[in-house]
């Protein structure tokens, strides 16, 4: 691999390209045609988030926490998710930045954007390109990194029993609404609606502390956000709302979201937001602690509203430092 300074300069050049030119309209159209759950707006948002990592300051700040790799490159096999645009690119970046070789199997839902991103990167950085392969099946990797559902995780553990691996499974995120410190609801909407609510960092649970106007919060949360929602998502909400009116009377149904009372935190279900009313902060703390192994992030604790989809380079999924792991494979 090239030296760190050269690597950072070329990654920063990719960041400049993303910030100035963005994704061409024909690429966005092709990506949406291949996966109708994507939208041009969602694609732009995902690329904007990635571009925040690709500056000399951010890359230096991240790499300063780690020693350089001294061993020969290992083969990292990555199974990329496709639940939102470029969901797998972070893992590919970690693999290559750690000085290893990467073989990546793209999700069929996100091949267009992943290929476009890698082509742009390797047009700038031909040295790193030699350490990367797109594959349809993994070829005996030294380490496996994958992200999927709980069922996918069980399958992969059984499929690769002798391969060192990190298999991520379903997680969800929550937000705490404290009437004493009311959040910016518009920004919190972004955490809920972006990417059809399908990301593990999307807020699917609201913990409401006492003292607030529940009806006011529900009305504000279900206002139409200031950007276009996916028509397929809206159709899904409409269908679920019709079902709800026939089955449950306690759900708050709107054209964009269904708020369901709950007594515990739950995995995300598209179009649903689970509302848990608690008696005090101690009960909120207990709920969060009891689901710690399933939580990705908590708005109102370690993260502010509107920031769930802008993780830093060091905000590792599942709080597992994959870069440190890759450095020592």
Walk me through this protein's architecture.
- The two termini are 16 Å apart.
- The strands form two sheets. Strands 8-9-10-7-6-11 form a six-stranded mixed β-sheet.
- Helix content is 41%, strand content 16%.
- α9 (185-193) links the parallel β6 and β7.
- It contains 13 helices and eleven strands.
- The chain has helices spanning 4-20, 25-34, 40-51, 56-63, 89-97, 111-124, 126-129, 150-159, 185-193, 214-221, 231-247, 281-290, 322-327, and strands spanning 75-79, 101-105, 132-134, 143-147, 165-168, 172-177, 203-208, 252-253, 258-261, 272-277, 295-299.
- It is of the alpha/beta class and 329 residues long.
- α1 packs antiparallel against α3 and α2 (25-34) runs antiparallel to α6.
Topology:
Blueprint: H1 4-20, H2 25-34, H3 40-51, H4 56-63, E1 75-79, H5 89-97, E2 101-105, H6 111-124, H7 126-129, E3 132-134, E4 143-147, H8 150-159, E5 165-168, E6 172-177, H9 185-193, E7 203-208, H10 214-221, H11 231-247, E8 252-253, E9 258-261, E10 272-277, H12 281-290, E11 295-299, H13 322-327
Parallel strand pairs: 1-2, 1-4, 2-3, 4-5, 6-7, 6-11, 7-10, 9-10
Antiparallel strand pairs: 8-9
| Residue share in helix | 40-55%
Q: Largest beta sheet: what is the strand line-up?
A: 8-9-10-7-6-11
Strand content: 15-25%
Mean model confidence by pLDDT = 93
Outline: globular
Point out poorly predicted stretches.
none
Total count of helical runs of at least 4 residues: 13
From the N-terminal CA to the C-terminal CA, the straight-line distance is: 16 Å
């Amino acid at each position: 691999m090239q030296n760190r300074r050269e690597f950072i300069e070329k990654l920063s050049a990719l960041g400049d390209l993303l910030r100035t030119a963005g994704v061409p309209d024909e690429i966005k159209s092709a990506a949406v045609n291949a996966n109708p759950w994507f939208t041009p707006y969602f694609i732009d948002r995902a690329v904007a988030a990635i571009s925040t990592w690709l500056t000399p300051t951010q890359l230096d700040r991240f790499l300063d926490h780690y020693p350089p790799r001294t061993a020969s490159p290992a083969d990292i096999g990555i199974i990329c998710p496709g639940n939102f645009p470029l969901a797998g690119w972070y893992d590919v970046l970690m693999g290559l930045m750690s000085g290893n070789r990467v073989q990546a199997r793209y999700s069929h839902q996100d091949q267009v954007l992943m290929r476009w991103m890698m082509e742009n990167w390797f047009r700038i950085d031909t040295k790193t390109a030699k350490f990367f392969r797109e594959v349809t099946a993994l070829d005996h990797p030294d380490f496996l990194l994958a992200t999927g559902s709980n069922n996918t995780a069980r399958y992969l553990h059984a499929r690769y029993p002798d391969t060192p691996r990190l298999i991520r499974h379903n997680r969800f995120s929550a937000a705490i609404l404290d009437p004493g410190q009311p959040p910016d609801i518009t920004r919190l909407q972004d955490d809920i609606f972006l990417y059809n609510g399908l990301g593990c960092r999307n807020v699917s649970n609201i913990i409401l502390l006492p003292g607030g106007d529940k009806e006011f919060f529900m009305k504000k949360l279900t206002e139409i956000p200031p950007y276009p929602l996916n028509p397929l998502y809206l159709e899904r909400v409409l269908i679920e709302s019709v079902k709800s009116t026939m089955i449950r009377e306690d759900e708050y149904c709107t054209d964009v979201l269904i708020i369901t009372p709950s007594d515990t935190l739950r995995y995300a279900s598209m179009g649903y937001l689970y509302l848990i009313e608690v008696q005090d902060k101690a009960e909120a703390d207990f709920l969060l602690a009891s689901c710690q192994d399933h939580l990705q992030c908590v708005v109102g604790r370690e993260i502010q509203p509107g920031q769930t989809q802008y993780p830093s380079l060091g905000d590792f999924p599942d709080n597992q430092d994959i870069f440190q792991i890759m450095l020592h494979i």
